[in-house]
Amino acid sequence: MTLPRFCLETTPLDRGTVLLEASAGTGKTYTLVGLLLRLLLEQRIEKLEQALVVTFTIAATEELKTRLRSAIETLLAVIGGAPCAEPLLRRLAGLDGAEPRLRQALDDFDRAPIATMHGFCKRLLDESAFETRQPFRLDFVVDLLPLLHRAAADVLRRTYAPEPDLRQAVLTLAKLTPDALVEQYRLWRRYPDVQLAPDDPDAAARLQAIAGPLQRAAQHFDAACRQNIASFQWRANASPFDDAPEAALDRFATDLAAQPLLALGLLVRLAPANVVADLVNKSVQPLPHPFFTACDEVAAAVGTATEHLRAQLLHDLDVLLARDKQRQHVLSFDDLLQRTHAALHDPARKPVLLAAIQERYRVALIDEFQDTDALQYRIFATCFRDRPLFLVGDPKQSIYGFRGADLRAYLDASADAAARETLDVNFRSSAPLVAAVAQLFGAPHAFVEPRIGLPAV
After folding, report:
1. What b/e sequence results for 243-256 when a residue is b if at least 16 CB atoms lie within 10 Å of its CB, and e otherwise?
2. Is the dihedral angle over the CA atoms 62, 13, 86, 1 positive or is it negative?
3. What torsion, rounded to 10 degrees, do the Cα atoms 8, 11, 14, 17 define?
4. How far, in Å, CA of 69 to CA of 338, rounded?
5. Measured in Å, how far apart are the chain's first and last C-alpha atoms?
6. Residue 222 — left, alpha, or beta (φ > 0 → left; ψ -120 to 50 → alpha)?
7. Is the dihedral of CA 124, 129, 130, 132 positive or negative?
8. Are 271 and 299 contacting, i.e. CB atoms less than 8 angstroms apart?
9. Which residue from 144, 122, 146 is spatially nearest to 135, judged by alpha carbons?
10. Sequence-ordered list of residues with C-beta below 8 angstroms from that of 88, at least 6 positions apart, any chain
11. Which of 88, 148, 387, 399 is deepest in the core (most CB within 10 A)?
């Protein structure tokens, strides 16, 4: 994979969005500091606080601040006559007005907007309360999970009935526990454009659609079906029976005749497509029999009802959680992102808010961009459309979903960027190790996704 080399000393600073792909050890922090110094001393910004710098951990923000202050002090020393081997610093030291600008930067250093993504959103909502129509004071809760789990448990508690019914049976089959509901809710809220709006928001009708196929399955189960099922040889750990098939089929026949809901899970497993997937011998298949046809219909109806029920539960959870947070006057990390995004995409609020942002910031630099999700990228892209925006990251790390990374968001940014370049010198590892990594991961399709590769380093 070949990308143009990013030259810190000479690369133009006004090309719009620049995606800078940088592997570990190639000097990303050094490059960010160099860009900030160039922006200041080449008079692209009048003061540091006009450049927004976003990293993804508090530790990274502190390191960047330390490195930037140190670079300013080193540059002042070079202006005063100290020897310097770095061409960039020597060139910047010779620019007109460099010394007073650097001294002013040191005096105002505490105002430099170097923050995490959530810190930026919080500051934006605080400073633009009128534009965003947000309360002036809210308590910030770092860990929303206890509140979220409590709301999920409340939603499910209201859903369960004291007696077995279709709703409870589907919930059990779908394993919609509070933990599962919380995980799905958090995933949903990461994607602002995903709407959970089934044709029939009330899942009751979809649940009721299970009753007909369930009744037909009970009517058509006979000795031929039982013998056919008993002949199946299941793959290891794939059998739907907890004990010997004969005993399990006895219970199944009893449940199907007297209490069909208890047999619902096994009917879904006996749908022909599910059976064939779990058999050792594919030549032994379910009979062309009305019972197995009904099993297919049961599985399809349960699948549809599950999706509608899940959507309804997630909607109910969203409403309940919003009410609980409003009552307790709290705001979470996710709320910061969602409220910022909502304000930036509200036709009534967007023009005023964008004017305030663009008056405050002339350029933005985003570090560790591979950890950005779709919501965060859209915030940046909206705020800095037609303005210098430097995105520094390593797409090979976008696979780490546990850190919040989103490969598609990275690839979308790559497609939108006016320029895509790379840092091609590793300052951290030995040459043989770099060569070995290049040999291993430089093969075609090493990362499966063809738009991700290993630039020459």
Report:
1. eebeebbeebbebb
2. positive
3. -70
4. 33
5. 10
6. beta
7. positive
8. yes
9. 122
10. 8, 9, 34, 37, 38
11. 148
Question: What's the chain look like in SS3?
Answer: CCCCECCCCCCCCCCCEEEEECCCCCCHHHHHHHHHHHHHHCCCCCCHHHEEEEECCHHHHHHHHHHHHHHHHHHHHHHCCCCCCCHHHHHHHCCCCHHHHHHHHHHCHHHCCEEEHHHHHHHHHHHCHHHHCCCCCCEECCCCHHHHHHHHHHHHHHHCCCCCCHHHHHHHHHCCCHHHHHHHHHHHHCCCCCCCCCCCCCCHHHHHCCHHHHHHHHHHCCHHHHHHHHCCCECCCCCCCCCCHHHHHHHHHHHHHHCHHHHHHHHHHCCHHHHHHCECCCCCCCCCCHHHHHHHHHHHHHHHHHHHHHHHHHHHHHHHHHHHHHHHCEECHHHHHHHHHHHHCCCCCHHHHHHHHHHHCCEEEECCHHHCCHHHHHHHHHHCCCCCEEEEECHHHCCCHHHCCCHHHHHHHHHHCCEEEECCCCCCCCHHHHHHHHHHHCCCCCCCCCCCCCCCC
Taking the C-alpha atoms of residue 97 and residue 281, their distance in angstroms, rounded to an integer, is 82
pLDDT 10s digits, 253-263: 898 888 888 88
Question: How large is the average pLDDT for residues 283-298?
Answer: 88
Across 103-112, 126-135, 185-194, the highest mean pLDDT is recorded for 103-112
pLDDT of residue 107: 92
Q: CB neighbours (10 Å) of residue 281?
A: 9
- What pLDDT, on the 0 to 100 scale, is given for residue 294? 92
pLDDT tens track for 40-49: 999 999 999 9
